[in-house]
Amino acid sequence: MIQELLAYFNPLDYLGIWLFTAFILAFFVSWSTFPAIFKVSEAKQLMDEPSSRSVHASRTPNLGGIGIFFSLVVVITTFGGLLDTKILLLLLGGMTVLFFLGLKDDLLILSPKKKFIGQLLAALVLIIFTDTRIMGFFGIFGITILPYWFSVIFTLFVYILIINAYNLIDGVDGLAGSLALFACAAFSYVFFKTEDASMITIAVATIGSLLPFLRLNFSKKNKIFMGDTGSMIIGFLVAFFVVRFISEAQVVRTSTFYKSAPVLAVAIVFFPLLDTLRIFFIRLIIHKTSPFKADRNHLHHCYLNLGFTHVHTTLVVVVINILIFILALLIKDIDIHLQLLIVLCVGSFLYGSIFIYCGLFKIKTNSKMPEHVR
């Protein structure tokens, strides 16, 4: 009898209860995991040591990504049997690869080359075996359908770009986690509109896993960082949501977002992409150094130099990104080229005051830490 009920069960018929359960489960597992992470970190001295470019002055546990990962594992293994099992298992496999790479980097330091290879492997397996890829540009630049090989390469590029974008912005309390929270909320909305039960379940579960982490990440007493473990996992998930959303919108011509999916995806990850492209330009063109060489030229560092607190920095960045997404939703039915132009111009304008103040070609490389920074 149970098997018959499960065979005909459709999460979309009970979506409210289904998503609430997934959220609560992820939240509970994440919440329950952090006390153990604190104890192990303190007992084994697994702490992030402050450096010359750090925005904190005390030794802090940096294994917050473990709690996020475990909560998502529990949700996927518990709910996955009634969803798109193949995609979720491959997604879990990719997350596991990045989990161990990130964990090793947080504990022992891993070379950028090895991290890059691991990211490629995790993304490539998901692309090849699920055929979830960006198949075209929706007429942007006059390109509709891409050759298969180029589609795979471009999708890989999107994965690598977004994974590393979230890794690079993880420099201020709550910033990477809050932007990931917003991204998951935005994708929950668009996947709800497209009735993609598997993706909306994972997006809502990710929100549940991030909330306990953010409470601690913003805390002054029991602070914890997500580390590379967490930033790579959430970057990978957001990248997958981007690719899945664009891919499904392109396949289903009757989709609500058929004419706007790429622009909406860009709007959702606008700040991480903007900061990453900016920092690569500064490092490669201005300073002529490795794009992976750490410095204090990120936009969040510019906010701190202006005297903003960590909370104010995160709040301003996230609110602006939300406004960009809302704008993209409002103009989703006009010509896609005009959509893209408006989003890029307005988004750049909203963040432009930071560029103007710091001076794009007069970047401060040895600025002193603001007094409020711990």
Automatic annotation (TrEMBL):
Lineage top rank: taxon: Bacteria
GO cellular component, one term: plasma membrane
Biological process (GO), any one: cell wall macromolecule biosynthetic process
GO molecular function per UniProt: metal ion binding; phosphotransferase activity, for other substituted phosphate groups
Transmembrane segments: 15-40, 61-81, 87-104, 116-134, 140-162, 174-192, 198-218, 225-243, 263-286, 307-330, 336-360
Pfam families: Glycos_transf_4
Main location per the UniProt record: membrane
Cofactor(s) listed: Mg(2+)
Lipid biosynthesis is among the record's keywords: no
Record-linked CDD domains: GT_WecA_like (cd06853)
Key words, A-Z: Cell membrane, Magnesium, Membrane, Metal-binding, Transferase, Transmembrane, Transmembrane helix
Classification via InterPro entries: Glycosyl_transferase_4, PNAcMuramoyl-5peptid_Trfase_CS
Subcellular location: Cell membrane
Protein name: UDP-N-acetylmuramyl pentapeptide phosphotransferase/UDP-N-acetylglucosamine-1-phosphate transferase
The organism's taxonomic lineage, starting at the top: Bacteria, Pseudomonadati, Bacteroidota, Flavobacteriia, Flavobacteriales
